[in-house]
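Support reply, case 0932

Customer input (verbatim):
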Amino acid sequence: MEISSIFFILAVLVVVGMYLYAPFTVRSIRLRAGESQEASGLRAELDRVVDSLRELDFDHSLGKVPAEDYPSQRAALLQKGADVMRRLDEIESIPFTQDAKSRIERAASAPAKMDRLEDDEVESMIAARRREHKGRSAGFCPRCGRPVLVSDKFCPACGKSLA
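Our regenerated output:
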């Protein structure tokens, strides 16, 4: 045998070996992805608990929740949030310096992430949109009666010339 054929056989064996070893490397990647999926689920659960805590506080301020039920419900939500946060810290292996309950309290007392537009801003946007829409209408098609715009040269429904 020539030396080139030996190198060729070795190259083929290396490629086949890499191909056969590939599923074992994919499995380790899947395991890491599963861990991040679990962490994502815990983050979603934590968001739900914090939102529930905010809603409970808001309902209590409105008087919807009786004063005797409020402390027990709030304590249960705080405990659930602290448990979720501890499990999340264990998965992500992030050392935490504060107590989990105080972190939940801080998250619940923080304003919501979404910036809400003021009613006046929304009303002005609606009025501007209506003015814009009114200026574009040119009436109705003489054949079918459908509304047409100023920029239309033909009726979009029946095709009659509008010029």
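We compared this against your earlier run and they match. Two observations from our side: Strands lie at 137-140, 147-149. Residues 3-62 form the longest helix (60 residues). Please reopen the case if you see a mismatch on your end.
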